[in-house]
Amino acid sequence: MEPKNRVNLLLKTxxxxxxxxxxxxxxxxxxxxxxxxxxxxxxRLTFPQNHYFCLPILSILTLQTPLxxxxxxxxxxxxxxxxxxxxIAKSYGKKLGELTLxxxxxxxxxxxxxxxxRGCTVFIIQSTNPPSDNLLExxxxxxxxxxxxxxxxxxxxxxxxxxxxxRKDRPRVSIAAKLIANxxxxxxxDRIMACDLHAGQIQGFFDIPLDxxxxxxxxxxxxxxxxxxxxxxxxxxxxxxxRARSFAxxxxxxxxxxxxxxxxxxxxxxxxxxxxxxxxxxxxVDDLVDTAGTLCKAAQIIKEKGANxxxxxxxxxxxxxxxxxxxxxxxxxxxxxxxxIPLKFPxxxxxxxxxxxxxxxxxxxxxxxxxxxxxxI
Length: 377
Fold this sequence. Notes:
Distance between the termini: 55 Å
Oligomer: single chain
Number of strands: 16
Largest sheet: 7 strands, mixed
Strand order of the largest sheet: 12-11-10-13-14-15-16
Order of helices and strands: HHHEHEEHEEEHEHEEHEHEEEHEHEEH
Radius of gyration: 25 Å
């Protein structure tokens, strides 16, 4: 019997499919895909692995739809992002997979998956803050997944550490962000998913697909609930102008810029505000807050210029050093962050929004081969 005739016969009835072994069914689907793909204007249809549709041959040929198997999706969490990973998995509609992270007495890590991931599309969720151990743990998990015959491995990195070192801003320094990109790729990652990278050009450091999500989809609805009458957005430095402008455009309001000069890392020498903030409700926009020195100084200067109120929206709450003390002593009404990094201590001035649903929708889009454009404002 000719292959094409066999395909027609198998598609006509459920009984003929049921009589085939799993191996034979797999071969027939290869033939179906090949035959229908030759027809112009075909569309893609995905379906779970080992699940097969029994449709009349006339319907399939009319739709011109090749059948493409889709591997099972499994989601795992690194030790630094368990709470966020549970929210992401819940949003996606899956339970977190089981894994074990063992340590030798000297601190050496040995991660292992406690369930089969052979042929699966694996998503490993891990923010790299603090970077050293968490980054190495992520690389080890990626390597373990590849060696366990995972079909694809996607590293979901809500907060991408070392992103601030994205260029040579002075002699004899490392471009750490590029080095980290090379490490993740060499470990075996097939795809990266991150949120609000410190600099957009970091996407170009990777030679694999990178889905760059935007925290604006989380902050915009929250800001709408505040109903501020004279809202205006401010960039705490020149590097944040693009972020502030996107919010200003969305809400159809003005923006200002704070121009700063640093003596050294985490220490500001001078700052001035470019623009009019008198009588305005100012919202500072940034991708991360570390010691909060920049935000608090910007808020102080803006307040001195006659602003009605000052608050900040920041995607990644690194909050190291005297950050909590600086925020409590500042003129900021509040600072709104996300849970890409676990909050160390509660504070009346710090509000936390979750990116769990945002990443859950992104994973749905990636596994369903659809666009993530709807996740941006």
